[in-house]
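Q: My collaborator sent me two sequences in one message, no labels, and asked for predicted structures for both. Can we handle them in order? The first one she listed is below.
A: Yes, handling them in the order given. First sequence, followed by its structure tokens:
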Amino acid sequence: MTDTTAIIATHRHSLKHARAIQRALPLSVLFAPRALCAEPASPPMTPYDNLTELLTSLFRQSSAVVGLCATSLLVRVLAPLIAKTKEPPPLIAVSGDGRHVIPLLAVHSGGNRLARTIASALNTEAAVTTASDNVFQLALDDPPDGWQLASKKHYKSIVSRLLNGEAARLCNPPSWLHSDTLTVESQAPLTLKSSLRPPTEDANTLHYIPQRLALGIGCVRNVSSSAMLESVRKHLHTHNLAIEAVAVLASITVKHDEKALHDLSTHLGVPLRLFSAEQLLTTTPQLRNPSQQVFATVGCYGVAEGSALLAAGARSRLIVPKHVDGSITLALALARKPLIPRKGGNHIAIIGTGPGRPAMMTQEAQQQLLAAEHVVGYRLYLELAAPLLTGKTLHPFDIGQEQERARHALDLATHHHARVALLSSGDPALYAMAGLVFQCLDECAYKTPTRPPPSISVHPGVSAMHAASARAGAMLAHDCCAISLSDLLTPADIIEKRLEHAARGDFVIALYNPRARNRRTMLTKAHKLLLRHRAETTPIIIARHLYRDKEDITISTLKDMMRYAIDMYTIILIGSSQSRVRHIGTQPYVYTPRGYVLEDTS
């Protein structure tokens, strides 16, 4: 399930209540019909054209959905998908007047909680229909964050007995488990208990496990994932502790790329936290088994014990000192209360803004941008995306500071556990920021971060070459390629070699970065080279400031290309030998046929 909740307004009268819900859900995105998004709004709205397509797309992405519309509409549209989905995301229906909030799906997997949050924002009540919630004011199979119900095998029969008046015995109950309507007796046959101990199969007991354990791990390089999992299971069993009680894994930063640690984190569904040797040194007075050998190797006196203590937080205590199991060292620290990892942090969404207008961004890109806390980008890109950036922390950079942008985004995500959006114009994976971010992660100091590297998602945008082609017809309808004329990062002789081969191959060619103030000769060389392989009458498109206020699109010929104003805000498309200019009415268009043989049916 995604961290973002989608709020869908279906008409103007529901917008007021949709806004109230949006304010109550910081990581939400508000969708509205395109006609309602014409005027600037704060926070911004994401337009949609087809409600059925939007609902279907969001459901398939496992996004929680809040629809301000008829319940029957949501059910009718999503019924075919619901029938095929084992674990659907929360689905909430809200009446257009904001008076009724009805959780429909995943009610005991966050749906009821989400509905209550929405109802509170609207100053109304959620229409929760599940029996345990209504009678006990508790979702007994959906405990708060930081707690797990050990097994749901006997849940239905136990709750049925409770609803029919049987009493329960409370054993070490957390505060959230108290209910005025729950009959409690010290000798009752049913038991509701919380414990760090492994659960036993008992048809009369609901066993809740607080996630308070931090598991510190040290290991030799390239230990197998199966060996580590087995060692952890054996270790917890030896000390009579439930594996579900583990809330976080911890180790030293040099283990950032240890596959077994990441596999264990995925298997247990808990985060992995890494600490530097300097951080681990601060725990030296608390270590039970400081080691001079470990210090000589990695610069601290204990990895397993120290990292467990740091991950468990202030006033935690070591309950199981380090234990060496062959090539693996384990230790356990107990936190004062359940450890709830912050959701959505340590993530970078690399977003393509498209050629200029916010309307040209994909819905997915807008959703990711709206969900970000910090936005990093070239100043112009931030200005172009301004309607979507209200309330976010902006980090503007000058042109040419691509490495600084990438490193700053990585720092925000890894060291501040932030949810970061890194903006690129056009498509982020085409001459833009995505490749640089991955290169930094591959080659730079992020190989040894003080936390695990951030998760990365790349959200494509409309590239300049596709936008230019579309504005003037369909020049890219057949085989094509893109070549940057900037020799800042690619040697000039390689650029010329690629141009030569592309020209010989009769590709439609998109020329990026054609000219800058201090870089003017490569375009002249490219023009001369292309004229050796293409006719002077070859159609070209010169597009500047696509989809922006100063947009200028020219259709001309290869012979006359150098007559026009060309700069870094320009992209040039060079046609192949098959590309054609045709007038439809008074409007010229350029297209490249693919070879269809058409019959004249007129």
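Q: And the one she listed second?
A: Here it is, processed independently of the first:
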Amino acid sequence: MTAHVDTFARDRLPPAAQMPELLFELPELQFPARLNAATELLDKRVAAGEGGRLCIQGDRVRWTYADLLAQANRIAHVLVQDLGLVPGNRVLLRGANSPMLAACFLAVFKAGGIAVGTMPLLRARELKGIVEKAGITHALCDSRLLDELDLAAPDCPTLRHRMSFVDGTLEAAAAGKPATFDNVDTDAEDIALMAFTSGTTGVPKGTMHFHRDLMAACACWPPHVLRPVADDVFIGSPPLAFTFGLGGLLLFPMSVGASTVLIEKASPETLLPAIAKYRATVCFTAPTSYRAMAAQVPQHDLSSLRKCVSAGEALPAATRLLWQEATGIRIIDGIGSTEMLHIFISADEAHARPGATGVPVPGYVATLLDDAGQPVPRGQVGRLAVKGPTGCKYLADERQAAYVQNGWNLTGDAYRIDDDGHYVYQARTDDMIISGGYNIAGPEVESALLLHPAVAECGVIGQADAERGQIVKAVVVLRPGHAPDAAMVKTLQDFVKQTVAPYKYPRAIEFREALPRTETGKLQRFRLRQENT
């Protein structure tokens, strides 16, 4: 039975016929009916006598599990006593990665609220859309990011309670509260998290996740693929508002009693020295960051680093090789989605292979379907379909019917399965270029271009063509010292012809100084397509 008094989100779950089929076959996925993620991740750890273990580090902050518990409890009291939160209220969380933001997430879980993380770079118009869609009632916001929230607020009548941190407001209110809090006895299927997609399509969707979903994600990919230990120190770049970041930099380390480093600006230039400073052992970031960091590796002591994880977009074989040559570490690749919460296909270091994402993570099953919903033969390209202990639950969104079909979650990715059962990424299903009768995956051409030493970044799309239907077009960012001229166009075209099947070469190449990306670093091919029409 739900503990939510405010049933706004629960009332807007997809209809039963559109819900994904869930699988709980692993013993570790047998969860009790009553479950609060904060209790599992934090309170139980301290109750077991591990409160003295290091939990979170940040700028001039070093908290043990007991420290984090006390801070989260105090913030939970502020939410309930000062801001009138009742279970089921939606709380917008806005801030760069920091120990304080992590404490806010856990406080919301404790109080039975629904945490709604938002990317720091979102503007008022985008925030307004999220607040309206989610009926957000409360906000805890970094004072340095208040301007855009203040601009949105007059058009957000549901947002009645706001408090800032960093400027000391929330910190002062929390300081006067007790360090203990009775966590709300939430149902395992009470919604704990609402994540809005960063998306490549440009239209965000609210995805809802139960308390059970958070713990299920911790029980699948981390122990079976990453295999972290309690002495690990996690670090990385994805924001906590992005489920890749929330899992990799908060939920997963806490699930094994490890510690995490939360830094506000984890650019390639700052991430490497931070790894050295904090003696980090596990790094989470996007392929573009690994590629940018590889050349800087000799300047930093990375001897503590033992695991590197890539997700968010396809990992080019060239980037995997570049990083391995620089560090000796084989990147653990994985595909996850905001809808599924985290990684569901992956391979550990021992089984990683160039160009392949991996195999279904224990707890999940996958298949490839054609447009009629039937399995495709081995070796052919099909639409990736997944089932597991988590699944897509859009907030009042007609697109649920497209994502979940016959119980399967259709992720929007095109894959093929090789002879050894490994899933090999081809493209987003809307990124497949059909030219002269050939199916050409844009990311495959991107991977080929990235092998050329003159190419820093690239994005590949289909451009309308009267003769071929579409031609392959590449938008390229060159490294310093290379001229964006006709000679370079021919050089890159010839290089691609020599690297992959010649019919895949880009017949059009445009040079730019930068590519459009989401705040999480994902290439926005839809914008390249829009700009090309």
